[in-house]
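Summary of Year 1 activities. Much of the first year was spent building the evaluation harness for sequence design. The harness presents a backbone, in tokenized form, and records the residue chosen at every position. We chose the following record to illustrate the format because it has been used consistently in internal testing since the harness was completed.
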């Protein structure tokens, strides 16, 4: 701190002010001494004039005045009119002034010869000097303490900023006081908070990427191992058409699973990157549902399940029809995966002034309470296998990307998706999207 240029300038300024203050104090003391000397001269002149006017002999008056000095001057002859002050005086005043000059008392008389004035001025001068020096010393101490405090403050601030640079945000710069410095500290703390949030986001992104790569490798490892096994079996039994056909179908199933995983990941990546622009139009809900269920109706019929519709006549939905169809298809497919033969899936539509709510209600096994808060997480799969899959060993469990993809599609269009479920009684998915109250 003391080696910095602005600190040196401050100390130089304090030193100059101290010197000027001392010089001014001495000048003021000299002026005060001259003033008192003139007052005493006027006082003694008035006394001498008074004594002379009452007939006191000049020698007696001169001796009385001279006796007031520590070292009285010898009597001199009366001073001429040229030695008298320039003011116009006459009578006893001229004689009194002459007597004072005769005794050696004038405006130029040294203070040491004035016993009534010298001790007083000496005491006053000493007190003034001590006071001046004490003030300068106190002021210098305060400046020193201030500089030391600021040096410590800046040292602490430097240490905290270095911690910020090392991604350590456990301490913050003080910002409880007013002033430009603490405003700067506040701005630095704000910047540090942004850096902390950015660092946490980067760590989350890294962890998510690491987890995603691990999940993808795990998801691809199973079908790839199956394909390798199926290929060896097919190559090992080329003369067995039945075995070749069976394992070829299994190979195609594994390839479809890999294709589904790849496409889902590609779509999620595009949605996360914001590279997909939704083309929203006002679409009839019946058309959206018809297109979304075009590939699921046959499956529902084969599995002896019903899909019902309620309140969809004349309802409109403001959405991107292609992406919205994919999201609804994913939700209904999830309902089919969690129901058994004889169960019903109901799609109900409710239009409000602000949004259109579409609910998908199934009467299946429901979602376990430990899973309901994780179903929209990528690659999350429940430990509880649905009854439909337990009864259908040929069906494999999904990769855990369907519902996250549906949520990303709905969120990207400014909508919301929520879920309610009771184990053993079914599940309700509710999709809300902007709508207009216009009849077709």
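For this record, the design step produced the sequence shown next.
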């Amino acid at each position: 701190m003391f080696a910095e240029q602005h600190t040196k300038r401050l100390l130089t300024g304090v030193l100059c002010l101290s010197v000027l203050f001392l010089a001014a104090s001495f000048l003021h003391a000299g002026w005060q001494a001259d003033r008192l000397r003139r007052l005493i001269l006027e006082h003694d002149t008035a006394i001498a004039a008074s004594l002379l006017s009452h007939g006191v002999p000049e020698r007696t008056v001169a001796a009385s005045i001279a006796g007031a000095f520590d070292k009285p001057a010898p009597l001199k002859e009366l001073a001429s009119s040229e030695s008298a002050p320039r003011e116009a005086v006459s009578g006893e005043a001229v004689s009194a002034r002459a007597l004072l000059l005769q005794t050696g008392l004038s405006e130029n008389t040294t203070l040491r010869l004035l016993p009534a004035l010298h001790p007083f001025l000496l005491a006053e001068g000493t007190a003034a000097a001590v006071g001046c020096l004490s003030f300068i010393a106190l002021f210098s101490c305060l400046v020193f303490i201030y500089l030391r405090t600021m040096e410590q403050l800046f040292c602490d601030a430097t240490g905290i900023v270095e911690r910020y640079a090392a991604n350590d945000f456990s301490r913050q710069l003080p910002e409880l006081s007013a002033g430009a410095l603490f405003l700067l500290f506040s701005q630095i703390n704000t910047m540090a908070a942004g850096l902390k949030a950015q660092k946490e986001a980067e760590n989350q992104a890294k962890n998510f990427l690491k987890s995603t790569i691990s999940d993808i490798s795990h998801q691809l490892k199973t079908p790839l191992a199956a394909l390798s096994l199926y290929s060896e079996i097919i190559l090992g039994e080329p003369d067995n058409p039945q075995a070749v056909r069976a394992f070829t179908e299994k190979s195609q199933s594994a390839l479809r699973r890999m294709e589904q995983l790849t496409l889902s990941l590609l779509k999620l990546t595009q949605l996360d990157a914001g590279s997909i622009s939704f083309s929203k139009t006002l679409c009839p809900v019946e058309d959206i549902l018809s297109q979304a269920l075009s590939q699921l109706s046959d499956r529902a019929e084969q599995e002896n399940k019903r899909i019902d519709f309620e309140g969809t006549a004349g309802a409109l939905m403001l959405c991107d029809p292609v992406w919205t169809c994919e999201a609804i298809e994913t939700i209904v497919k999830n309902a089919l995966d969690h129901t058994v033969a004889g169960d019903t899936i109901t799609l109900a539509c409710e239009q409000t002034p602000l949004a259109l709510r579409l609910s998908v209600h199934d009467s299946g096994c429901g979602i376990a309470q430990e899973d309901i808060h994780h179903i929209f997480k990528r690659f999350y799969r429940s430990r509880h296998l649905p009854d439909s899959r337990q009864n259908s060993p040929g069906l494999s469990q999904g990769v855990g990307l369907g519902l996250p993809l549906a949520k990303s599609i709905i969120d990207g269009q400014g909508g919301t998706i929520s879920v309610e479920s009771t184990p053993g009684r079914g599940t309700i998915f509710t999709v809300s999207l902007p709508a207009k109250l216009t009849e077709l």
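Confidence is low (pLDDT under 50) at residues 70-90, 388-396. Quantitative recovery figures across the full test set are reported in Table 2.
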